[in-house]
Amino acid sequence: MITERLVINLNENQVIEILTQSLYTVIKVSAPMLIASLVIGLILSILQTITSIQEQTLTFVPKLLGVFLSIMLFGLWIMRTIVEFTEYLFTNFSTFING
């Protein structure tokens, strides 16, 4: 039985490039939800301070709705960004692996 051995030849620069682009993609894709949650939390905290309401669970539902709305608004862009990154990985797969 003939077996072929797959040899992966990644140098440090390629690994760092892949990791950097992966982290950048994750940050870019998660930014709309995080910003929506941050803005809603800040506005509700200011309103709670002004009205002296100290209920911690009050911000949960508006944040949840804001994150859901941002996913609905930016969902297509998020998917496009993830697909572009995946296509980049697949098209450069041959440069990452040498047989």
Characterization of this structure:
The protein is mainly alpha-helical. The chain has a domain at 27-87. The protein is built from 3 helices and no strands. It is elongated, with a radius of gyration of 22 Å. The relative contact order is 0.16.
Write the layout of secondary structure elements.
Elements: H1 12-51, H2 60-91, H3 93-96
Helix pairs in contact: 1-2
H/E order of the elements?
Answer: HHH
Q: What summary fits the major beta sheet?
A: none
User: What sort of overall outline do the alpha carbons produce when their principal axes are compared?
Assistant: elongated
Computed structural class: mainly alpha
Describe the structure in brief.
With 99 residues, the protein is mainly α. It has 3 helices and no strands.
Keywords:
single chain; mainly alpha; 3 helices; 99 residues
